[in-house]
Amino acid sequence: MVTMTPRHTIVALVEDRPGVLNRVSSLFRRRGFYISSLAVGKSEQPHLSRMTFVVEGDEDTVEQVTKQLNKLIEVIRVSELNEEDIVVRELALIKVHASATTRSEIMQLVAIFRANIVDVGPQSLIIEATGEEDKINALYNLLRPFGVRELMRTGRIAMSRGTLEGRGERGAVQTNGASGGDRS
């Protein structure tokens, strides 16, 4: 029997400047933490980005990850999101072989999954799919027999439902990255 390692979603608000992603990924590498997914993008606050990590491990691993992230001067806040109270999405672009005989069948599959065709070529289609990981996997598996030429996935992005106070976030820690002091 195969046991699955628990997956935890951690979100970090970080300064948006060169080298931050490298420092964060180096921290994970040095400590031997496994990141199964990482997505980074601008946040609603100027000069700040939000990183979403999916980390595999037990509660001790998650605690160590959050403590180590909080030691980095560029990290403003770190939160572990409660899996039962978050909205999770992933974006995938899938380029699939599409001949004249298979194009309509592929288009029907795309419609069933509420995905979009974003490019049409003479022998291929590029499909944009958004949803939970299981939905993306299911669509990909149904498209494989047609010949998937390329696949690009963003990884998990996540946000707490409702307000930040007490819902969905556990262990949220506010830090002051602007102080310049050493937090080790």
Question: What's the layout of helices and strands?
Answer:
Layout: E1 7-15, H1 20-31, E2 35-42, E3 48-56, H2 59-71, E4 75-81, E5 86-97, H3 103-112, E6 116-120, E7 124-131, H4 133-143, E8 148-153, E9 157-160, E10 169-174
Antiparallel strand pairs: 1-3, 1-4, 2-3, 4-10, 5-7, 5-8, 5-9, 6-7
Radius of gyration: 19 Å
Average pLDDT: 86
Which descriptor suits the 3D outline?
Answer: elongated
What's the CATH class of the largest domain, please? Alpha Beta
Tell me what the structure shows:
There is one protein chain. The chain is an alpha+beta fold. The chain has two domains: 7-81, 2-Layer Sandwich (Alpha-Beta Plaits), CATH 3.30.70.260; 87-157, ACT-like. Chain A, domain 2 (Alpha-Beta Plaits). The chain is 25% helix and 40% strand. It has helices at 20-31, 59-71, 103-112, 133-143; strands spanning 7-15, 35-42, 48-56, 75-81, 86-97, 116-120, 124-131, 148-153, 157-160, 169-174. Strands 2-3-1-4-10 form a five-stranded antiparallel β-sheet, covered by helices on one side. Strands 5, 6, 7, 8 and 9 form a five-stranded antiparallel β-sheet that branches. A hairpin with a 3-residue loop joins strand 6 and strand 7. The radius of gyration is 19 Å and the shape is elongated. The N and C termini lie far apart (41 Å). The model is unreliable at 165-184 (pLDDT under 50).
